[in-house]
Specification:
Layout lengths: L3 E4 H31 L7 H26 E4 L15 E6 L4 E8 L10 E3 L3 H6 L7 E6 L2 E11 L3
Parallel strand pairs: 1-2, 4-5
Antiparallel strand pairs: 3-4, 3-7, 6-7
């Protein structure tokens, strides 16, 4: 399996989620299963089946996160020195030339991506369009709702 890039902050967030799943969710579900078992007939016990389903989801998520972390190449963005170029981990401030509005994104690993937090996946079309460009560059990007024109206002590294 190919190693995938991940920011230091993203790796910490995922490790925190694994810890919470193991120390909080797993014991809560085990207790719910034990309580549901105490109610008797398991075939018609909705609480038991719901708890078992939750258990499967939580265990699957733990495995997924642990596998991702084991294959992650954690990159400390603050230590990069790409001379103003947009690279993995960079935080980029953009000017949308059509609406004259500014937006800031950080390019992160695929598992870390969260558009609500302005974290875009390194393999996303926008991130691919940004990689290698520099502050002051303008570029066009094929967005789902048509072609967008952006100017790169600033490029920062680190949190």
């Amino acid at each position: 399996m190919k190693r995938s890039p991940m920011t230091t902050r993203g790796a910490e967030r995922l490790r925190g989620e694994v810890e919470r799943l193991k120390s909080v969710e797993r014991p809560r579900i085990i207790a719910a299963i034990a309580e549901a078992r105490a109610h008797g007939d398991l075939k018609e016990n909705a609480e038991y089946h719901a708890a078992r389903e939750q258990q499967g989801f939580v265990e699957g998520r733990i495995q997924e996160l642990e596998a991702a972390l084991s294959y992650a190449e954690v990159i400390d963005v603050a230590r990069l020195n790409p001379n103003g170029k947009v690279v993995f981990g960079a935080t980029v401030e953009l000017l949308d030339e059509s609406s004259n509005s500014e937006v800031t994104y950080q390019i992160v690993g695929d598992l870390e991506a969260d558009i609500k937090q302005r974290l875009i996946a390194v393999n996303s079309p926008l991130a691919r369009a940004l990689i290698g460009k520099s502050e002051g560059d303008s570029f066009e990007f094929q967005a789902p709702n048509g072609v967008k024109s952006y100017e790169i206002l600033s490029v920062r590294y680190g949190d």
